[in-house]
Amino acid sequence: MFVGLLFSESDDRPLGGAAREVPCANVLRFGGAALPPGAQPAGICTREGWQDLHYRAEFRMPRADVRDWLARAYPDAPAPETEFCADEDADLCLVLGDAEGLPEGVAADTVQVSVVHEDAGTARVRFTAFTM
């Protein structure tokens, strides 16, 4: 019966774990944050994994509010970087872990935020939170 349960999922992984759409608010909550006021989804938000979890959200928000939103969400975090971001097209990025500003009690082990300035008023935010 157990083997049948393992293979009953519709994805092609024996133990499941394929990306599934979830509410964007759940993605940010997993990473210890909340969607900022004025945020608009830019694609689907997903949860992927079985043992280790990987959440992704992408949204647009007012460009002028990005730094304040990050500071409110992660008050103990270092300042966001403007250079050496993993996403080459990022104008701003932040990587957090237990020792780098993640609040206690957050489910994720690591949070990565990548921000692209689309125009003078809009930023596209890629938010990733995962366990290891």
Question: Short summary of the structure?
Answer:
The protein contains 3 helices and 7 strands, in the order αβαβββαβββ. The chain has helices spanning 2-6, 24-30, 66-73, and strands at residues 20-21, 40-41, 46-49, 53-62, 92-97, 110-117, 122-130. Strands 1, 2, 3, 4, 5, 6 and 7 form a 7-stranded antiparallel beta sheet that branches.
SSE map:
Layout: H1 2-6, E1 20-21, H2 24-30, E2 40-41, E3 46-49, E4 53-62, H3 66-73, E5 92-97, E6 110-117, E7 122-130
Antiparallel strand pairs: 1-3, 2-4, 3-4, 4-7, 5-6, 6-7
Structure characterization notes:
With 132 residues, the chain is of the alpha+beta class. It contains 3 helices and 7 strands, in the order αβαβββαβββ. Strands 1, 2, 3, 4, 5, 6 and 7 form a 7-stranded antiparallel sheet that branches. Residues 1-11 have low confidence and may be disordered.
Chain oligomer state: single chain
Please tell me the total number of domains: 1
Cα Rg: 16 Å
Distance between the termini: 29 Å
Low-pLDDT windows of residues: 1-11
What's the number of helices? 3
Fraction in helix: 10-25%
Q: Give the ordered list of helices and strands.
A: HEHEEEHEEE
Return the structural class.
Answer: alpha+beta
Name the beta content range.
25-35%
How does the overall form come out from the CA principal axes?
Answer: globular
Largest sheet: 7 strands, antiparallel
Q: What number is the mean pLDDT?
A: 88
Got a strand count?
7
